[in-house]
User: Fold this.
Amino acid sequence: MARDAQRSAQYGGKQRMRELRCIIFENFEVIKAITGHRRRIGKPLPAGQIGKLKITTSPEIVVTLELLPDDGHSLFIPSSGAELAAALIAFCIEQRVPMPVSAKKALTVLEGNIAIKITKS
Assistant:
């Protein structure tokens, strides 16, 4: 125990190890997450088929769904920030993927896919 206190003092008294988990989503899962979230908050997507999903990262991560309504005019529906994070976290909970409440969560892009980084101290 004394050694642990000595080491802790040596490194500024701060805990150094943290746990990092990443949940990487396939595009169809991102689409399900966003459509489900929009339905839950009372803003469902208009009728039509989902076309492409586009991910941009500058200045922030934005997922844009292309919607192909029957009238032939494409609609582009963006999702980002807290809204996108909430959709993905709710999807994880629905799929029974453990999501620690107290952990820090951040959106990132890995290998061209949206991911949530979960850091636990």
